């Protein structure tokens, strides 16, 4: 067993165990909720974006970074076709459609918004009724950690990407302290946890050649929350760091104590967990060091179909 933690978002009374394969290093929740149970962990609010201008600017920056992985396919190719797996509410495919791509999506959740402006397959990726090289690119942003059979997704991507086309995806980095030790994974929505070695093995088996790996926070973040508390407890005190040693987040603290956001709540939280406040101040330096060492919590991979 690597660790045990609850569903911190919706069902805090439900605990889940994360284990690691002795042979390949793949991490996974064991036992995993059955497919038919998973809808419970994806309520409608999971797909709701804050209706703010700042969030809109954040999405534009994020989509621009995601699109940069496909930029080489945009030069000299008038007709480009993209399949976005796990397209949620369809915002990234719409962004790419505005850049001239023909887009389709895959989304199995019943809680996401209904999409009518482009084709969306509402079934598991490996079951969609397309079985030949059709797409110049297949993308999957933070998807494979959510599915019950990630290898089936890799094989299906290989079946659908044209020769020389791109398969681009983002997954958490199980080699990172955030994923492996700090309980930052979104369990049980996250079911699998990948190392770069497991990703390379999956790509090789599926007939892809890895072009690029970017370890960093450019698209999504998995920040080393409570890194300081972990280091003090394990390195200085020589003790284990378990889920019950994790302090409440400021949001959880305010909810429990019925406090509105503001200076008073911030001061009370600082008194409750001063290490968390110092930890947050150190994030930029810690994250930069992790990115330089390729141990940040998230990695994006771009692979080419052979």
Series of secondary-structure elements, N-terminal to C-terminal: EEEHHEHEEEHEHEHEHHHHE
Strand arrangement, major sheet: 6-5-4-7-8-11-10
Mean pLDDT, all residues: 93
What is the molecular shape? globular
CATH architecture field of the largest domain: 3-Layer(aba) Sandwich
Terminal residue distance: 37 Å
Given helix and strand content, the structural type is: alpha/beta
Poorly predicted segments: none
* Name of the level-1 CATH class of the largest domain: Alpha Beta
> In the CATH scheme, what's the topology name of the largest domain?
Rossmann fold
- Provide the β-strand percentage band: 15-25%
Total number of beta strands: 11
Helix content: 25-40%
Radius of gyration: 20 Å
CATH superfamily of the largest domain: Vaccinia Virus protein VP39
By DSSP (H or I, 4+ residues per run), the number of helices equals 10
How is this structure best summarized?
The chain has 306 residues and is of the alpha/beta class.
């Amino acid at each position: 067993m690597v660790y045990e933690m609850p569903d911190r978002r919706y069902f805090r009374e439900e605990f889940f165990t994360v284990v690691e394969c002795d042979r390949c290093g793949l991490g996974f929740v064991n036992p995993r909720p059955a497919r038919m149970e998973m809808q419970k962990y994806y309520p409608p609010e999971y797909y709701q974006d804050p209706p703010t201008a700042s969030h809109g600017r954040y999405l534009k920056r994020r989509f621009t970074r995601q699109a940069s992985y496909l930029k080489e396919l945009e030069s000299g190719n008038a007709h480009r076709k993209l399949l976005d797996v796990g397209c949620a509410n369809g915002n990234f495919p719409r962004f790419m459609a505005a850049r001239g791509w023909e887009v389709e999506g895959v989304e199995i959740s019943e809680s996401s918004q209904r999409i009518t402006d482009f084709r969306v397959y509402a079934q598991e990726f490996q079951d969609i009724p397309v079985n030949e090289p059709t797409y110049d690119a297949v993308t999957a942003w933070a998807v494979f950690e959510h599915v019950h059979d990630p290898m089936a997704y890799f094989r299906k991507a290989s079946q659908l990407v044209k020769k020389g086309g791109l398969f681009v995806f983002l997954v958490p980095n199980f080699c990172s302290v955030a994923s492996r030790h700090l309980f930052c994974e979104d369990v049980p929505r996250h079911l699998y946890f990948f190392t770069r070695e497991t990703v390379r093995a999956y790509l090789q088996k599926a007939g892809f050649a890895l072009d690029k790996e970017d370890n960093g926070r450019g698209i999504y973040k998995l920040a080393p929350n409570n890194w300081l508390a972990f280091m003090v407890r394990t390195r200085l005190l020589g003790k284990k760091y378990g889920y019950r040693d994790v302090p409440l987040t400021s949001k959880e603290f305010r909810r429990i104590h019925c406090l509105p956001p503001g200076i008073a709540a911030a001061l009370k939280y600082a008194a409750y967990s001063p290490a968390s406040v110092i930890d947050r101040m150190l994030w930029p330096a810690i994250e930069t060091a992790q990115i330089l060492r390729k141990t940040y919590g998230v990695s994006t991979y771009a692979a080419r179909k052979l």
